[in-house]
Model the fold of this input.
Amino acid sequence: MTNAPKSDAPTLPLDAQLCFSIYSTSLAIQRVYKPMLDAMGVTYTQYLVLSALWEKDGLTIGAIAERLALEPSTITPAVKRLETAGFLLRRRSTTDERLVEVHLTEKGKDLHPKTGCLTDALLRHSGFEVPQMIELNHLVQALRHGMRNATDGRLEADGSLG
Done:
């Protein structure tokens, strides 16, 4: 089965396309976060890596990449820079020497409480109340889940279960 469109309908204008709205919103959020992240000494990608480790310390590069829906080749340079900056350490697994685990240092752990300003800025600039932001996040997560299912081959091109 092909992934060809079923309709000859013209493409929607950019502002009517959900994919563009989500993409451009993500970029706008990153621009709002940038001065605060700069003051903390990390990039947005590095912040995401640290966030994954704040959820569960000791993940492998592959597990971090999977959690962030990124390629390990994207994560590795960020991890190396974070290690150089003293936020984390890489160590061989004690149970499987083939695996390298990434662990937060005290400096990395101490950064976590300082990141609350990011959520504060997001709420302040969005004009949303907390319940609205939570609902929007749930809707976006449901959309992401559906798109991941489609790309994992669980859905046919016509949207039916494969």
